[in-house]
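Sanity check. The docking grid for adenosine monophosphate depends on where the pocket ends up, so I'm generating a full predicted complex first rather than guessing from homology. Inputs follow.
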Amino acid sequence: MAGLINAAPVDKPEDYRNIFVYLENRDGQLQRPALEMIGVGKRLAQKVNEKLYCVLIGSKISEMADEAASYGCDMVLGADSPDLADFRTMPYAKIVEDFVKKEKPNIFLIPATRNGRDLASRIAVSCQAGVTADCTEIDIEEDTRILSANRPTYGESMLAEILCKRHRPQMATARAGIFPVPEKVDGSKCEKRIEKVKVDKSLLKKEIIEFRKKEAIDLTAAKVVVSGGMGLGSPAGFKLVGELAEQMNGVVGASRPTADLGWITRDHQVGQTGQTVRPRLYVACGISGKIQHIMGMKNSENIISINIDPNAEIFRYSDYVIVDDVNKVLPALIDEIKKYKKEHLKKAKVASR
Amino acid sequence: MPLDIIVMVKQVPDSQEVVIDPVTMNLNRSLTRNVTNRADENALEVALSLRDKAGGTVTVISMGPPQAETTMYECMARGADRAILVSDRLFGGADTYPTGLTLASTISKIGRFDVVIAGEESSDSSTGHVGPGVAEFLNIEQITYCSNVEYKDGFIVAERELEGGTEVVRTPTPVLITVLLNSNFPRRQTLRRKIDAMKKGFEVWNLEKLGLPPEWVGVRGSPTIVRKMRSIKEKERAAKKYDLSNLGELVKELYEKNILKLEEE
Ligand SMILES: Cc1cc2nc3c(=O)[nH]c(=O)nc-3n(C[C@H](O)[C@H](O)[C@H](O)COP(=O)(O)OP(=O)(O)OC[C@H]3O[C@@H](n4cnc5c(N)ncnc54)[C@H](O)[C@@H]3O)c2cc1C
Ligand SMILES: Nc1ncnc2c1ncn2[C@@H]1O[C@H](COP(=O)(O)O)[C@@H](O)[C@H]1O
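Predicted complex below; grid placement will be based on this.
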């Protein structure tokens, strides 16, 4: 607990060592942003030759600890209790605060998911640390071990580099979907220190009455995303979008207004207030390219956009553009793909015989 | 039981017309209009409707420069009972830590409260950290990212929107709540209340009133600094043109470059 106290700088920053990452989990599963954090943490730890610690809080966490270990971290610090089955701010923040005060990490990274931000903002105060929110680039200076935390600002037009020189730990939250999931490592040597903890009842006043799961589709893992926008003209347009996605082994995405209008469910939305994707191929069908949408897809490896307006903003972000009516282009494109597959799959079969 | 509610609101540059000085890379404030942060209008609406049902008071607080007075009047014209602008040159350049500290000590000074409400984030710094920071300074429970908030028999029951679904939680007061942008329709300002607000006025509190040491607030009290700003370079993309007549070529190129694959891995 903080009380009304200032953020006092630490006397000896050099006493603070190692990289900590927080492993977000739900229903006994590490969430993808947790793995993304391991990837970032490993890179920083290797650069300054320090250890990567993963903080894991939950109930029955040993399998998750094993999974984290398989990505090649040095230590899993775990707190396990039935009272910790669901994320709740007060007990989680207390446990993390205790870990930080005991272990004195130099850096602490947390995913900028909703619960991640909920937690990070509290720990920053209880540990009198500096925190940079929602980073899209994270690095460390080798000689000074100062974290370079970079976040977009001014409507994503600029990137601000933020440092925290005299306070420890140096904290940052990292935007989900930006950093890659690392490869697993064979035979990694990871120590696991999992404590069964007793949670103080006074921290458990918040009750979770229910969790209404959305049949959320995970766009961030898809190799191909085909998204529809207002240019489709009607909800029926998403049938074509779905068909193209199927032909491309991809999933369906959407711009926000189509979700607002109920043409498709919210979990398909790409952008600032939806998901951030970086697939091998992104296809934007009848999407104008407003910044809030662009933010969610501009790092895709390849981008095709279909728009009737030859001056559409989205074209500036596209590798391939098709200037025509999306409701004519989609059926034609689907046909061409079917044709191509028919020819080449046949050839492949003949060749393998 | 009536509820005493404190709402934290921030005045922000209108995001529709942000102008950046090409030399300093800073926001050109003289060319940018200021408005009330939109999520904070949703926060105020939650406060007003809780008060309308349970009784009690709504006090708006804001840390900011003198021009934030328009936001103070606006909130009163929507129905807030009292408004306090916490303003001092020494508060300038604060990051989230001293901002939270300044607002939390304002709340302590006000004394009585059951619920503190903030927006999910501000459109200019967009961290979402100030609300929970205040909760930590005050050592109270928090419920973030709420789309719906109700008060029943001494408990706040709220719906939180998370990545995988909606969580329904219940907690006794005191509690800090953060409210999602666009989660409700903020009531309009009325002329009548506008006139009343002008007559009544709002309070201005400075650093001395809060009694915090000057090195705890503003830029001096901030752990983080901005080292530099750079414009985000977009990857150059060719925007190679196709139309209905040559889609076959496009498809061929996609497969040949392995952008599409016949057998998905
Ligand atoms: C705080 C905030 C958050 C937001 N978050 C998001 C977000 O997460 N994701 C998001 O997508 N948006 C978001 N938005 C909304 C965003 O600003 C845009 O309004 C939205 O992206 C536009 O969607 P659109 O491109 O589908 O529609 P429009 O802008 O209406 O564009 C439709 C396009 O279709 C083209 N078109 C029309 N007819 C045809 C045709 N027959 N064939 C081909 N093309 C055609 C038009 O030329 C036009 O370019 C947000 C806005 C705010 C203020
Ligand atoms: N200077 C301020 N004065 C009053 N409230 C603020 C201030 N800064 C932030 N807040 C509140 O904290 C919320 C989150 O802001 P931020 O952490 O800046 O994204 C805002 O929606 C406001 O409710």
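Relevant for the grid: The longest helix of chain B spans residues 38-54.
Also worth noting: Chain B touches chain A through 84 residues (CB under 8 Å).
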